[in-house]
Amino acid sequence: MVRRHVAAPFAALSLVVVALALPHRAIAGTTTDCFPDRVVALNLGTVASPPAFNSWQPGIVLGPPGTTTPTNGTLTVVSLGHGGSIVLEFSDNSIVDGPGPDFIVFENAFFCSAPPATAADPWSVFAEPGIVEASADGVSWHLFPYDAAALAQVTTLCTDKALLASLHGLFGITPSFTGNWIVPDDPLVFDPTAPGGVSGHGGDAFDLATVGLSQARYLRLTDPNLPIGIPGSADGLDLDAVIALHAHATLPGLDTDGDGLPDDAETFLYQTNPADPDSDGDGVSDGDEAAACRDPKSAASTPLFLGDLDLEIADGASPTIVRWNTLGPGVTYDLIRGDVAALRAVGGMVDLGIVTCVENDSTDLSNRTVADAAVPPVGQAFFYLVRQTPRGSGLGYGFSSAHAARQPASGDCL
Fold first, then answer.
1. CATH architecture under which domain 33-250 falls
2. I want to staple 285 with a disulfide (CB 3.0 to 4.6 A). Which of 60, 165, 259, 302 is the partner?
3. What CATH topology corresponds to 2-25+309-407?
4. What is the pLDDT of residues 259-290, one digit of tens each?
5. Upstream peptide bond of 296 is cis (omega within 30 degrees of 0)
6. What are phi and psi of 358, to 5 degrees?
7. In the chain, where are the structural domains located?
8. How far is CA 367 from CA 31, 331, 334, 371, 385, in A?
9. Tens digits of per-residue pLDDT, 100-159?
10. One fold for both 2-25+309-407 and 33-250?
């Protein structure tokens, strides 16, 4: 991510341009996973005490669900406010219609009392139902059907299980659990071995066939403006995450075997065979497995999540505010700034030159609390890079398109 200054008639004009390969990625532009990649629109509804919680860092919904328990919702969310909405785009893959559910939406619903031990036990959920629409092109939208009369009966903080059974087609009604988050829940199945009897690991699953779509790249999630919730900055439903269960990779680049993963991604990132569309021989292409957070080298169903950070500079922000998406619960980040003119390719690495640590071990997804007041001289440019911490735990500051690691000469975050 680069901030550049150019000459203007009366003053230096600040421009934001993308001039470097994405700073974290092992192979720039060739990673894919099961999460949405971009917040297209965020329209916050009304809240009792704005701003809405985390509304300034919507990238928090572009990664895995947060850590939670059956009776305690996660805070790694964007609160939409009453009547608010968010539009998410899948850009390196598209959700496709497969057997059963195709994607899961996670809100931070949780049990209001002890989780039920049997299907006959009474229970209720702190549910904040949300409306789901899907689109192939971001223009024509398809609404997942739901019972509007049942939704209108959600008037209290805790919704009884009898009413929850009538809210199928909405999200924000099933408690979420830490665990294998790519296992969908079946609301008609009670599993006595799982927390609270949930058959999967929480969240609410949706099937594209329900709305007659074979594929979707956009989801619009809307708060129905119900008279529930605790008044404050977190009014409205709290979106945690979205994951694709069935998806096709749609990445650019040379793709010898036509599986949706470019050869560079297969060779240097996934370590799969770029000449074999199904490296593990399980009947699912390498690209489709990567796009659904599965390991294309293994027939196992265990999730595979590769660290994939996307940076952006907040429009109009001065001083500079850089923000990025989440890599999951408990991860912290280092943000550095450097001079584009100092970049050098030396001995199989990219020398970043003398850099400045803008934020060390950030616990959120932005340098909002330590905004960068520095500006480059007219006609020159700064770059910004972020990495997962502690050092050595992730992909560092990423690699060049020639697969050379990026390393600061000095000034790095401790």
1. Sandwich (2.60)
2. 259
3. Immunoglobulin-like (2.60.40)
4. 988 888 888 788 899 999 999 999 999 999 98
5. no
6. -80, -40
7. 2-25+309-407, 33-250
8. 25, 15, 10, 5, 12
9. 999 999 999 999 988 888 889 999 999 999 999 999 999 999 999 999 999 999 999 999
10. no
